[in-house]
Structure formats: C-alpha cells, structure tokens
Amino acid sequence: MPEPVVPEALAEHCRRCGSATTRQIPPGDTLPRATCPRCGAVAYDNPKIVVTCALYEGDRILFVQRAMTPYQGCWTLPSGFVESGETLGEAASREVGEETHLKVRPDRWALYGVLSLPDLDEIYIAVVAPLPGHDYAPSAEASDVRVITREEMVALDLGYPAPTVQLLVWLFEGIARGDLHEPGERLYEMRGRDPAAGDQVS
Fold first, then answer.
1. How many CA atoms within 13 Å lie on the side-chain side of 36?
2. DSSP at 196
3. Distances (CA, A) of 150 to 70, 95, 201
C-alpha cells in the first residue's frame, strides 16, 4: 500500500499573510480546505505534476538507473516534478539535462499520454522526442544511462508497478509502428496570470 498523502494545505499558517489557518469548507465547496480567517486565502490540495520523458531512436528508448532513493538502482525513464514557473517542455528538458546531460529544446517534446495516480496524489504527463545525440552520461541522479530495446527493458529491475510496465511496452510498440506525434503536437504553452485566481492559493 502507498504511504498516505499529507496535503501541503494542512500547513498551520497562511502562505499569503502568515496567520494561523483553520480547516473549513468554503462557501460553494464540498471539501474542507486550509482557510485563513485573517485574509480569506484558501489553500487547495492539488496533486503534484510529474513529467516523464521518453527519448527514442529507432526501436530503442533512453533509460536511466536511479542513483538516489526512492528506487535506487532501478531503471526508469528520466522524470521529475514540474517546478513553479516552468512550462511542461521546459521541465522535461531540465529533468533530462539533470539526469543525463543531454540538451533537448523544450519545443521538441510531444505529448504521449497522461497517467493519474490518486493514491500518490500525482499526475504523470509522458512526453516523447527523438534522441538528440549520444552525449549522455551518468549524473548525480543517474548512475547509468542506456538506450535499450523493449526486450532489454523487461529484463531490467524497473522502478514501476506491473501496469506501468505494460504502458512502457505499448510505448515501445508505438515507436516501432512510427505512430508517435510530431514534435510539439498537442503540447501547448501559455504564460500569464489568471485574474480570477487572486483570492486562491494553490
């Protein structure tokens, strides 16, 4: 069983003014939220966004061996949390650079799929791009980096549950069929503040 999720909004103090928060159901809502009685800010318990990156060449995909916990020693796709202020493409390029030293332009990524993990309070967004070269190398986060086939993947110690391994198999099959989207297709970017979000802390 996964570890229980402790929402960040259970913090005792308001992120806007620092006052002590209370747990209550805001008007028109259905769930208790951390609410500031002083400034009225409401903190919503939103899932974390994780980007997972598949760089492919022919019928092979780049995998890394994790050098850090959790799942130290297991093989996985480069991935990590999207930081505040980043686009999805920027996050994907940063994570790949940190783990493999490869440089991928943010506009080269295409959306492959979305995986919801409510038990972990996370949403994984899988993106794909052609492998930009072979200048990859181990890093502080990845003890080894390899471009492998589907057959090689299933023989490795993977840091994924069985259903996710099946998704990876489908990814390999999609690459072999050549049915991946063109770079940038269905991966949109927009910057700018939502005026209606002024009273919310997410």
1. 19
2. G
3. 24, 23, 43
23 touches 11 (CB < 8 A): no
pLDDT, mean over the chain? 86
Tokens of 165: 């391994």
109, pLDDT greater than 80: yes
Average pLDDT rounded to a whole number, residues 150-166: 87
Angle among Cα 159, 106, 71 to the nearest 5 degrees reads: 10
**CA pair distance 126, 171, nearest whole angstrom:** 10
Q: Which pair of structure tokens corresponds to residue 90?
A: 């920027």
- The amino acid present at 24, given as its one-letter code, is Q
Phi/psi at 88 (nearest 5 deg)? -60, -45
Tokens representing residue 167 in the block: 């998704």
From CA 84, how far away is CA 72, in angstroms rounded? 26
Output the pLDDT for position 123: 93
List, in sequence order, every residue forming a beta bridge with 116; answer none if it has no partner: 123
DSSP H stretches of helix in 7-136 = 88-100
Instruction: Give how far Cα 139 sits from Cα of 87, 97, 107, 109, 197, Å.
Output: 23, 9, 24, 22, 39
